[in-house]
């Protein structure tokens, strides 16, 4: 039970790095000596330093003979910094407890072997499921080349996101909107479709949380036909803006957006639309591990149809608009109910006058990628 308690603390430490440490995993580390926590650390912004050296620096000499709890196998390769496994050996810790093994070929099993070869007791698998969930974006990027994707939908009771005239502010209440900003903060990037960018002129920034690192703003627009006087265009020099587009996008528009400060990512087509799988793989190549999608309906439908949605978060308000309103999810071309993506309900809670529900993909029904 003690191991689980300290690993739970390490997991909470690791979550502090979510959204700011990509392309590295958000790892947490806790060092315990004689029943007292003497060092804590998590992966720092930009991915360096790693969690273990941060915790070791805090612990100092107290690390000798201590037990170290770390959410991911300590790295064993020389990169921008020396291996964390070597740092733990040099600190003369007595025991290392690891939640999950790294899937990166440069590390997988090697960090654990280095520790054992040095005479350090190693225990693995403590709160492994929780750690695997927290680190799923890193594992997906390593194994499949694409980030973890959360799709957020804020709708009326009848699944609409705007009236027939396009009015949508505000369907949900202030509590729900603040919760969404907190979710943006824990993701590397916020992504929307071109239709949402044109209709809403969003900033896609984190607000109400003080001076924090902003996620990358990503807009998916095949032809780059986006407003050049928009908030996104005006802030592209200050906050990262990536535009995912098709090869047939107008060359002059590509140059204009680059001059404004945006980074352009070409993506293959799947029929007449950009490939959802290709979009996420392009973001994975850039190092993103966690992406937060806020619509619109066409983008949400394409991601769901391609089985790219790992987590679905819905905010349902006590409002009814009717069939003439804009649906939260566009056409998916499903002929049979058995083809529909299904999700497991993980949690739900009241958020002011709204209901927030969290759903996870049913793993057994995953489609081949």
Automatic annotation (TrEMBL):
InterPro entries the UniProt entry points to: APOBEC/CMP_deaminase_Zn-bd, CMP_dCMP_dom, Cytidine_deaminase-like, DHFR-like_dom_sf, Eubact_RibD, RibD_C, RibDG_C, Riboflavin_Biosynth_HTPR
EC numbers: 3.5.4.26, 1.1.1.193
UniProt-listed PROSITE patterns: CYT_DCMP_DEAMINASES_1, CYT_DCMP_DEAMINASES_2
Pfam families listed in its UniProt record: dCMP_cyt_deam_1, RibD_C
Pathway info: Cofactor biosynthesis; riboflavin biosynthesis; 5-amino-6-(D-ribitylamino)uracil from GTP: step 2/4; Cofactor biosynthesis; riboflavin biosynthesis; 5-amino-6-(D-ribitylamino)uracil from GTP: step 3/4
The reaction(s) this protein catalyses: 5-amino-6-(5-phospho-D-ribitylamino)uracil + NADP(+) = 5-amino-6-(5-phospho-D-ribosylamino)uracil + NADPH + H(+); 2,5-diamino-6-hydroxy-4-(5-phosphoribosylamino)-pyrimidine + H2O + H(+) = 5-amino-6-(5-phospho-D-ribosylamino)uracil + NH4(+)
Cofactor note: Binds 1 zinc ion.
Cofactor: Zn(2+)
Domain CMP/dCMP-type deaminase: 1-123
Function according to Swiss-Prot or TrEMBL: Converts 2,5-diamino-6-(ribosylamino)-4(3h)-pyrimidinone 5'-phosphate into 5-amino-6-(ribosylamino)-2,4(1h,3h)-pyrimidinedione 5'-phosphate.
Family recorded in the similarity comment: In the C-terminal section; belongs to the HTP reductase family. In the N-terminal section; belongs to the cytidine and deoxycytidylate deaminase family.
Protein name: Riboflavin biosynthesis protein RibD
The organism of origin for this protein: Shimia sagamensis
Lineage: Bacteria, Pseudomonadati, Pseudomonadota, Alphaproteobacteria, Rhodobacterales
């Amino acid at each position: 039970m003690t191991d689980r308690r300290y690993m739970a603390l390490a997991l909470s430490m690791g979550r502090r790095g979510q959204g700011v440490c990509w392309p590295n995993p958000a790892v947490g580390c806790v060092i315990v000596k004689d029943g007292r926590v003497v060092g804590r650390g998590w992966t720092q912004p930009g991915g360096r330093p790693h969690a273990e050296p941060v915790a070791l620096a805090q612990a100092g000499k107290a690390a000798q003979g201590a037990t170290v709890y770390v959410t991911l196998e300590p790295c064993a390769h020389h990169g921008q910094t020396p291996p964390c496994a070597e740092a733990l050996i040099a600190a003369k810790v007595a025991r290392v407890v690891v939640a999950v093994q790294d899937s990166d070929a440069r590390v997988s099993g090697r960090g654990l072997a280095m520790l054992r070869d040095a005479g350090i007791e190693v225990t693995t698998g403590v709160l492994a499921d929780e750690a695997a969930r927290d680190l799923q974006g890193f594992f997906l990027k390593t194994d499949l080349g694409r980030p973890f994707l959360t799709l957020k939908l804020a709708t009326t009771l009848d699944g609409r996101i705007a009236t027939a005239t396009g009015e949508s502010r505000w369907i949900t209440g202030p509590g729900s909107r603040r919760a969404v900003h907190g979710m943006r903060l824990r993701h590397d990037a916020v992504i929307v479709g071109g239709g949402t960018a044109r209709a809403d002129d969003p900033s896609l920034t984190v607000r109400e949380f003080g001076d924090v690192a902003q996620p990358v703003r990503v807009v998916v627009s095949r032809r780059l036909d986006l407003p050049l006087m928009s908030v996104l265009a005006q802030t592209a020099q200050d906050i990262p803006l990536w535009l995912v587009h098709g090869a047939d996008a107008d060359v002059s528009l590509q140059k204009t957006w680059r001059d404004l400060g945006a980074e352009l990512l070409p993506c293959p087509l799947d029929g007449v639309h950009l490939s959802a799988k290709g979009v996420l793989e392009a973001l994975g190549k850039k190092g993103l591990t966690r992406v937060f999608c806020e619509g619109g309906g066409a983008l949400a439908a394409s991601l769901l149809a391609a089985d790219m949605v790992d987590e679905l978060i819905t905010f349902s308000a006590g409002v009814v608009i009717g069939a003439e309103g804009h649906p939260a999810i566009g056409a998916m071309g499903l002929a049979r109910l058995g083809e529909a993506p299904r999700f497991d309900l993980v949690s739900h809670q009241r958020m002011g006058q709204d209901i927030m529900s969290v759903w996870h993909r049913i793993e057994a029904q995953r489609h081949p990628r």
